[in-house]
Structures are given as C-alpha cells and as structure tokens.
Amino acid sequence: MLKNVNLTIIKTVNGTLFEKINNLASVYKVLDWAGIFFADYLLYIIIAAILVILFVKRTRLMAIAITVSIFISRLVITEPLKQILHHPRPYIVLENTRKLISESGDYLSFPSGHAATFFAIAIAVYFFDRKLGILSFIIALLVGVARVYVGVHWPIDIVVGALIGIISGIITHKYIIVPLIKRL
C-alpha cells in the first residue's frame, strides 16, 4: 500500500512540475531560444571543447576523466536502462505538450541521457577545478531544465540522469583517474 502511495505522489509531482515548466514554452521568445540552445545545441559545443582539451597536455587527464565518465553514464548505464524500462517521452503521453525540438526517432525518456552526460562532465571537471566544476553543474542544471522546458523529458528523467552522471563521474575518478595519477 505504501509503495503505491509513494508511486502516485511521484507521478503527480512529476506531471505537475513538467506542466509548470513546459507551459512556459512558446510564451517568451528569449526563453524558447535559451531552452532550445541548452537542450539541443550546447552538447555539440561541449564535445568540441572536450576534443580540444584532450590535445592540451595540462588538461588531458581531465578530458580523459570526462570522456570515461560520459561513456559509463551514457552508454553503459543510461541507454540500456532506456531499452529495458521503455518510459515514453512527455509529448507521446500528453497531447498538449509544447515540443520545441525534434528527437531523432528515440521515443524513450527515462533516464535522461543529456542529464547523465552533462552531470558526468560537471563532476569530472569539479575533481580537477572546483570553480569550473561549479559552473559546469550550473550548466548541467540548465540543460536539465531546458530538456523539460522543450517538452522531451519528465523532471524525474532529469533527476535520475543527473544521479547516474554524478555516480559515474565519482566511480571514474576513484577507480580510474586516481590510480592513473598514482602511476604517473
């Protein structure tokens, strides 16, 4: 009984929060532009930046930590979970969703791969540079909110994706980067 009550509360809060955020879409052009940028285009800029810092000796280890954290969070954990859980995106379930970006045929929502990716980046950066890491966490949070804003994720997708990203980054740091540093 308690399990069903908790599940109902989560679904209600998840749906209500989604509608409050997504209902702002298409109201203010500047928010739409920012939402689309953070939800869809920022990832390409970040990937380019990671490739650049990979070739700079001083930041190479951080780039490796970021890359491994993304690999674990996105490819090892998030994508298999999506295939197992088959949780549909909001615009599939709610006909009044204000969808501002198109997805590439992936109709599975839970957990958010973007949130996992950006939070994996944030925690990996944080271990090397605290100030830049905090900025990375703010960006990751903006990406997460933007994914809800543009109508392609539920808030719970973002929360779980963020946890996966952070845990992946911690695992990468503790079991791969620290031992690697000790060997250098």
If you had to describe this structure to a student in words, what would you say it looks like?
It contains seven helices and no strands. Helix 2 (29-54) packs across helix 6, helix 3 runs antiparallel to helix 5 (113-128) and helix 5 runs parallel beside helix 7. The chain has 184 residues and is an all-alpha fold. It has helices at 2-22, 29-54, 60-85, 90-93, 113-128, 130-149, 155-183. It has one domain (28-183). The radius of gyration is 17 Å and the shape is globular. The mean pLDDT is 91.
Which features characterize this protein?
184 residues; mainly alpha; 77% helix
Shape: globular
The overall pLDDT average reads 91
The total of helices stands at 7
Oligomeric status of the shown chains? single chain
Question: Can you describe this structure in just a few lines?
Answer:
77% of the residues lie in helices and 0% in strands. With 184 residues, the protein is mainly alpha-helical.
Give the SSE layout:
Blueprint lengths: L1 H21 L6 H26 L5 H26 L4 H4 L19 H16 L1 H20 L5 H29 L1
